[in-house]
Design a protein that fits this description.
The chain is of the alpha+beta class. The protein has a domain of 124 residues. Helix content is 31%, strand content 30%. The protein is built from 5 helices and 9 strands; from the N terminus they run E-H-E-E-E-E-H-E-H-H-E-E-E-H. It has a 9-stranded antiparallel β-sheet. A hairpin with a 6-residue loop joins strand 8 and strand 9. It starts with 9 loop residues before the first strand and ends with a helix.
């Protein structure tokens, strides 16, 4: 095992999906939202979807927002400074969008937090995972006629009565640089809610579970 160092986590990608009852959104509303948000949030392109199904606001390098009939999705791929920065920007963006759409209730939320974690040992990530968690027979690649390039974990934590949400944790090598682990936690939150502040709390819960899982496993 290796020591867990939380300040070594590197942000890679964040996704937040807010689900609400299906509703028709006028194109003019979407155009007005784009005009209001493009400057402050760096959106460069507007794509209206056919049949009034919503719109896509796109910025640079994976920065985008999808406003659909039944959900709004915020994605940030390469401009992430920190989780806290992502939360602050995303909450401000969602407050403007959802305030304009004014759904009567939010029926669910899904978050994805993806991070990189550099290993402190000299072992490659693939070797670390095999030695620490998974035993794979040396003969497996030979039996299948293919070399084994990587191995990973997927752990599913179902809802409980006390915590009615689901976490799905993935840990695998970051194949572009196997001195690092790729770590993903997807949090699905089922109870309906009305207060936008709960979005931030659920984002924090997804991130905190990822950190706690690494601490428990490394």
């Amino acid at each position: 095992m290796t020591s867990y160092l939380p300040d070594h986590l590197i942000p890679l990608n964040f996704v937040t999906e807010i689900i609400y009852p299906r509703r028709q959104i006028q194109n003019q509303t979407l155009i007005d939202l784009f005009n209001a948000l493009s400057g402050p949030y760096g959106f460069l392109n507007l794509k209206l979807l056919p049949e009034g199904k919503g719109a896509l606001f796109a910025g640079q390098k994976g920065h985008r927002c999808e406003i659909l009939e039944d959900k709004t999705i915020v994605r940030e791929d390469t401009n992430v400074i920190s989780f806290e920065n992502y939360c602050e920007t995303t909450m401000a963006l969602l407050e403007k969008i959802l305030g304009e759409l004014a759904p009567p209730v939010f029926v669910g939320q899904q978050n994805i937090v993806r991070m990189l974690y550099p290993l402190s040992s000299a072992r490659a990530a693939n070797q670390f995972l095999m030695e620490s968690f998974l035993h794979v027979p040396d003969s497996l690649g030979q039996a299948l006629g293919r070399p084994l390039a990587g191995i990973g974990l997927r752990l599913v934590f179902p809802p409980t009565q006390k915590t009615p949400n689901e976490f799905q944790l993935r840990i695998e090598p970051f194949f572009r640089d196997q001195t690092q682990l790729f770590v993903e936690n997807m949090g699905r939150f089922f109870p309906p809610f009305r207060d936008l502040k709960e979005i931030r709390e659920r984002l924090a819960a997804t991130y905190d579970f990822l950190k706690a899982s690494l601490q428990a496993m490394l």
